[in-house]
Structures are given as C-alpha cells and as structure tokens.
C-alpha cells in the first residue's frame, strides 16, 4: 500500500524526527537519497552538466546539498539562485566547496545559455512550503529547462502544485521524475498535480515511526488487491460467492445493461440477476444471467444492488431506484440513478450506499461546475461523501474513493486515458457490485474494482496503446485478476 499524509502531518513528524537527530542530519539524508536517484537516472555523472533551480527554503537546500554530492562525483553543477540573499547558506557553501558555481537567477541575462547542454535540472524551487503556482521569475527558468531538453527531477514535489490537495493554481513544473522524502504527499497521487510529477521515487529518511497510523490517502498495490479479492472456497456455492442484482438499461440504452452485467460477471459473483427492460439483449450476450421483469424486490435473493447505468429518467426508472434504495443490502448508484437521487433517502439507509459519479455527475450533485470538480478532486469527493452520508467513488483520470466518515481516501493508481470511452463506467459499476455482493466493504470494493478496471483497460489497450471499447475492458478483467493474483 502506498500512503500519503497531509502537509501538517508531515511537518509534525519531521519535527519529532529532527529532535532526535543532530542539526542538519535530516537534510543530508534527503540530499543523499536525491543525489543517488539522480546518479542512477543519469548513468554517468562525470562531466555531466546539471542545473539546480534553487528557491528560498529547505527544498532549495536539498537541491544544493544533492548538487554538491553530484559535483564531487565529477558533474558540472550550476545552481540558479532564484532568491540569492535567501538561498540556504550551508547548501550554497557546500556546493561551492565541491566546485559547483552559482548564478544570480533574477539578474541572469539569458536563462537559455545557463541551461545549454544540461542533461538534468533539479527543481528545488519550492516543496511543501509552496503556496500557489510558480511565480513569473521561476516560470522563466522552468520553461528554459524544458526547452533545453533536460530531464527535470522535482525535489520532493513539482514546484507550483499544492502538496496537500493535488490542485494546481497556475503554472507548475512538469517533472520527468519526482524524488520525494519520508512519505508520499497527496499532490503526488491526485491529478492534476500528479500529472506533473512523472515517475515517483520515495527516499526513506526515517520518518515512518513518527507518522500516525492512519494516512490521509491510500493507494492499493497488487498485493493489497490480491488480499481483498474473493476466491471461492472448496465448499462455496453461488450464494456464498455473492449474488449481485443489476438494475440498468432501457429500451433506448440496452447496451448499458449488457456492459454492467459483463462487469458483474468479471467481478466473480456467484450469480448475476438482471432487472429491467433490456433482458433480451442481456440474455443474448450472457445466457447465464437470471432475468426478472417485475420490481427489484421481487427478483429473488440478492446481496448487493447496482442501479442506474442507462436507466433513463422515466417513472419506471425512479420507481426501480427507490425500490432498490429501500433494500437492506449495499447499493451502488451510478449514472442516471445519480440524476434521480433523493439525498434524504440515501441518508436514511442502514446498509451501505456507494455513489459512483464522474466529474460531471459530481458537479451536478454538488451544484458546482465540472471544471471545479476536476480541479479539486480530493475536496469534491470528501464533500460529496459528507453531504450524502454515503461512500463516493469519483471517476476520472484519478479515481478516488471516500467513505464519508473521514477515513483515508483511496486513490487508484491503475488506469489509462484509453478508459475514457462510452460504457466503461457501466462495466465498473457491475464489477464493483459483484465485489460488494461478495461481502467486501464499500471502500474496498470500490478501490479494488477501480484497480482491476484500470489494469484491464491497460491490458486491452496493449503495449504502446490502442483504442479500446468498454466491452474489451470487460473481456480483459480475467487477465487483470490473474495479474493481481499471480
Ligand atoms: N527541514 C528539513 O530538514 C527537511 C526538509 N525537507 C525539505 O524541505 C522542504 C520544505 O522546506 P520549507 O519549509 O523551507 O519550504 P519550501 O522550501 O517548500 O518553500 C518555502 C519558501 O518558498 C517561498 N514560496 C512559497 N510559495 C512560493 C511560490 N509559489 N513561488 C516561489 N516561492 C514560494 C516561501 O516564501 C518560503 O520562503 C520539503 O519540501 C523538503 O524538500 C526534507 O528534505 C526533509 C528534511
Ligand atoms: N482521463 C482518464 N484517465 C483514466 N481513466 C479515465 C479517464 N477519464 C475517464 N476515465 C475512466 O473511464 C470510466 C468512464 O466512466 P463514465 O464516465 O461513467 O463513462 P460511461 O458513463 O460512458 O460508462 C471511469 O472508470 C473513469 O474513471
Ligand atoms: K520542488
């Protein structure tokens, strides 16, 4: 499991750790890890030109000390001091003593000349102390680094992103890699900031014992998902494995029913019940499905419901939604179900409810704009979960799952832009419902499903990448299971 902590928590842990160590030792640990990561990335340091972009805080200090270490290995290191009178004094001295040179950033005539021939640029402009986007002078240097074609390695975080939220208010550095210290920060895992971080490398500086048990964010890895996935025991029967009910599709959108049922089979349910007007289409594709034409509560035993994909917004759709919400088993509400949703009814439920909006649906539920939700994903998912007293899975380039009780938010590390295709959300609904029916908690079910779904999409897109259809994502689910369990 990858975990991330808020800036306040990181600061508090750092204070405790620093109190145990000699002055400056922590920064040396960070710098040593950073220098080693850079050396690994470069392959050869001797004679290599490296430029450091150095701000006024300890983030710049890390860059300077790492630069000194690389200079001692033969690199030609130039530090651009963006605030020359406030640059870390010890770091500046160490770099000069190691043979590195410094340039006064604000008065340098030609950033392109300073950057010429640089293979690596270290972004030590700001770290967790940064507020707002890059300021104009820093922006010029970040752009010069890009134009020089150098690899950009961010120190702790790409400068200009909000460490605690993943928001980007203005311009931020685009890094090829980020070397972060002690723990991940939310901004490294949540878009849009995560999209600026490149490949992540965590340097152990001994912070872990001082961090609280409960992180702010969690990202599952293969082993975590493998431990969650239900596997039939010798004496399993279909009810023990879980029966999932799918209320989806309409005369207009029969495909949504087919895709949700495909996802449900891909999640390993013992049986899938389908309720709705698209039974013929469902049976044609999946003859294993148990279909029912009456109200959901008459369909027979079900351990979790999925309601909403392609349901339409007519009176039948509303009745079916309310019927399912009246049940005492976990319910996943998606798509049209979200448009018809009665918040009071959700709040009154005793069993778990999981809402799975994309940014547009989340915006409608929050009375915000889509852009707003996409810019502030973490805040949006937490607010939705709080307002609806339900768990929420917010879909998109970073899929997040929040439980509404202030527990850690799960962030999905798999996926690909190829997944942004019509119907892929329907597959995710069925898949998640299947895991709910197997008895997983809502946050586990949502995050394990998002993980498998993203992995399946990557497999379907193949090496190098190619367009995929939602049904191909469903078809790749067994491969995703095998990859995780293997
Ligand atoms: N204290 C330590 O011994 C350690 C510090 N660490 C490093 O220290 C960093 C935090 O250092 P600081 O607390 O000094 O803070 P930063 O170095 O992140 O930045 C603080 C400075 O940047 C200025 N600033 C804020 N926003 C800005 C913006 N948008 N543009 C330009 N300047 C801006 C502030 O005025 C302040 O002077 C971490 O990110 C990490 O890199 C880690 O190495 C762990 C050890
Ligand atoms: N840029 C992206 N990168 C990765 N995954 C994405 C991106 N955009 C959308 N997705 C994923 O694709 C799926 C789309 O679901 P949704 O928006 O509900 O589509 P539909 O309603 O057509 O099924 C979700 O799982 C979502 O997380
Ligand atoms: K930085």
From TrEMBL:
Start and end residues of each YjeF N-terminal domain: 10-213
A Pfam family: YjeF_N
Keywords attached to this entry: ATP-binding, Isomerase, Lyase, Metal-binding, Multifunctional enzyme, NAD, NADP, Nucleotide-binding, Potassium
Sequence positions that bind AMP: 395-399, 425
InterPro entries in the record: CARKD (IPR000631), Nnr (IPR030677), Ribokinase-like (IPR029056), YjeF_N_dom (IPR004443), YjeF_N_dom_sf (IPR036652)
Cofactor note: Binds 1 potassium ion per subunit.
Segment forming the signal sequence: none
Residues covered by the YjeF C-terminal domain: 221-484
Keyword Lyase annotated: yes
PROSITE patterns cross-referenced by the UniProt entry: YJEF_C_3, YJEF_N
Organism domain of life: Bacteria
Reactions that this protein is recorded to catalyse: (6R)-NADHX = (6S)-NADHX; (6S)-NADHX + ADP = AMP + phosphate + NADH + H(+); (6R)-NADPHX = (6S)-NADPHX; (6S)-NADPHX + ADP = AMP + phosphate + NADPH + H(+)
Cofactor(s) this protein requires: Mg(2+); K(+)
Binding site for (6S)-NADPHX: 58-62, 127-133, 156, 256, 310, 358, 426
Binding site for K(+): 59, 123, 159
SUPFAM superfamilies in the record: Ribokinase-like, YjeF N-terminal domain-like
Entry EC number(s): 4.2.1.136, 5.1.99.6
Protein's job: Catalyzes the dehydration of the S-form of NAD(P)HX at the expense of ADP, which is converted to AMP. Together with NAD(P)HX epimerase, which catalyzes the epimerization of the S- and R-forms, the enzyme allows the repair of both epimers of NAD(P)HX, a damaged form of NAD(P)H that is a result of enzymatic or heat-dependent hydration.
Subunit architecture: Homotetramer.
Official protein name in the record: Bifunctional NAD(P)H-hydrate repair enzyme
């Amino acid at each position: 499991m990858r975990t991330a902590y808020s800036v306040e928590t990181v600061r508090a842990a750092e204070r405790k750790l620093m109190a145990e160590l000699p002055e400056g030792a922590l920064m040396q640990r960070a710098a040593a890890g950073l220098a080693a990561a850079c050396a690994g990335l470069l392959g050869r340091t001797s004679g290599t030109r490296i430029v450091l972009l150095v701000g006024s805080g300890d983030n710049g200090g890390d860059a300077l000390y790492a630069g000194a270490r690389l200079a001692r290995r033969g690199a030609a290191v130039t530090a651009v001091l963006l605030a020359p009178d406030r640059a870390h004094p010890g770091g500046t001295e160490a770099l000069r003593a190691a043979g590195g040179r410094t340039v006064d950033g604000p008065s340098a005539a030609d950033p392109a000349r300073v950057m010429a021939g640089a293979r690596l640029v270290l972004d030590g402009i700001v770290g967790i102390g940064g507020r707002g986007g890059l300021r104009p002078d820093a922006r010029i240097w970040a752009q010069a680094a890009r134009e020089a074609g150098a690899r950009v390695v961010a120190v702790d975080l790409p400068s200009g992103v909000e460490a605690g939220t993943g928001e980007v208010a203005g311009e931020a550095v685009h890094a090829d890699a980020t070397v972060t210290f002690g723990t991940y920060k939310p901004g490294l895992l949540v878009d849009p900031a995560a999209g600026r971080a490149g490949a992540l490398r965590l340097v152990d500086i001994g912070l872990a014992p001082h961090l609280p048990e409960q992180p702010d964010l969690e990202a599952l890895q293969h082993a975590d998902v493998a431990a969650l996935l239900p596997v039939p025991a010798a004496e399993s029967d279909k009810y023990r494995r879980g029966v999932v009910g799918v209320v989806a599709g309409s005369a207009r959108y029969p495909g949504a029913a087919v895709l949700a049922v495909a996802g449900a089979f891909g999640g390993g349910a013992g049986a899938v019940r389908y309720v709705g007007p698209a039974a013929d289409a469902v049976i044609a594709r999946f003859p294993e499905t148990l279909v029912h034409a009456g109200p959901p509560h008459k369909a027979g035993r079900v351990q979790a419901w999925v309601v909403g994909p392609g349901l339409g917004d007519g009176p039948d759709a509303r009745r079916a939604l309310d019927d399912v919400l009246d049940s005492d088993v976990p319910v996943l509400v998606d798509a049209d179900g979200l448009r018809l949703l009665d918040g009071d009814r959700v709040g009154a439920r005793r069993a778990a409810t999981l809402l799975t909006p994309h940014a547009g649906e989340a915006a409608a539920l929050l009375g915000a704009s889509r852009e707003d939700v996409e810019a502030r994903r973490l805040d949006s998912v937490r607010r939705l979960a709080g307002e609806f007293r339900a768990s929420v899975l917010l879909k998109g380039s970073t899929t997040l799952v929040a439980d509404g009780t202030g527990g850690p938010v799960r962030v999905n590390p798999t996926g690909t832009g190829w997944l942004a295709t019509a119907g892929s959300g329907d597959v995710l609904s069925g898949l998640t419902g299947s895991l709910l029916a197997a008895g997983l908690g809502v946050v586990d079910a949502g995050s394990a499903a998002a993980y498998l779904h993203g992995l399946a999409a990557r497999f379907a897109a193949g090496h190098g990448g190619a367009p995929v259809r939602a049904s191909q994502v469903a078809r790749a689910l067994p491969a995703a299971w095998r990859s995780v369990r293997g």
